[in-house]
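[Automated response] Your request has been received and processed.

Submitted sequence:
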Amino acid sequence: MPKPPGKTNSFSKFVPNMEGSTITLPAALTATTSRDLLRECRRTLKNGPLCLDGSSLERMDYSGDAFFALLADLSEKTGNKLTLAHFNEEIKAQLRALKKEKIPEKPKHGYNSTLEAIGAKTIVVAKGFAEVFILLNMCIYWMICGPFDKGRSKFGGTAKQVYMLGTEATGICFLMVALICFTMALQSSFMLKAVGGGIYLASGLGYLIFAEISPLLTTIILAGRSGSSIAAEIANMSVCEEIKAIKTMAISPVQYLVVPRFIAMTICTPILSFCAAIAGCLAGFLIAFFFFDISFANYFQSIRDGIPPILFLKSTVKSVVFGWLVTLISCNKGLNAEGGAEAVGLATTSSVVISISAIIIADCAFSFIFY
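Generated structure:
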């Protein structure tokens, strides 16, 4: 029976009214008997008023409660009157106890002005910076001071993480860097050939590969492959409350989960970056050989003459820092994941996006510092 909007629905009025269609209810209203009956009552109530005769109804379970609640809701929406007649006192008392509560709407996080929105985003970014910085300090503590802590628990897993995060990513890193370098060499060759500067292809390409392409592209690939794996694994543990279980056993989640991955990425990233740079130089040699008829010995001699030794150190520093960003951001997103399966997906997605953005921003900063 219809109620004014915004008020609580209660089955408290029983006014006999034989206008419209009348349906007699069975002796028992259960899950078995209410399904087909509900379908018939809903079809009738959509077309006009409905009177439910409860003279035969003696008992009903939770399915009966849902039966009357759904019909009352449909009566409100259609405006057709729902009448309950000839119910015994026990059923009336049970129906009076039924209430339909409105589910509160989810609050909208709106901002009153653009300045307020910018301030809110700035606070979120600053909080993320602080969390990553604290995580970095904790990792450095457990790497340097942890071995001298006699009360600490000894955990392994670093070698396993080196294999999972670094070794298994070797193929895709080599392939992507080689293809990018091959494409760059091919496009550069047309301009160099036009101005007669083919001899500079090897030195220019080698400098660009070791200084920029290899550390940047390798860590971006690792952010998409290994970083997402780290975030998803730790986020799933957070959602399943395994992190709380680790804390209950007086074990630091940073020591147990973050430090092995931090050490593994510190080892893997510079090695992968250097090896990928070699693969890129070999891909560039194909263009130098077929377009400019440069021999293998002359090609690598030009690379050697065009790259100062300090560049290898700069490239290594960039690779290590980029690897730290990927690991810390991914672990931080995983540790702070809350909710269900959706939280795991959000943590994984945001870790990849933020990691790649942080790598590019850091690369711009290093360009001003190193070059």
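Summary generated for your ticket: The beta strands are 9-10, 21-24, 28-29, 50-53, 59-60, 82-85, 99-100. The chain has a mean pLDDT of 83.
If you did not submit this request, please reply to this message.
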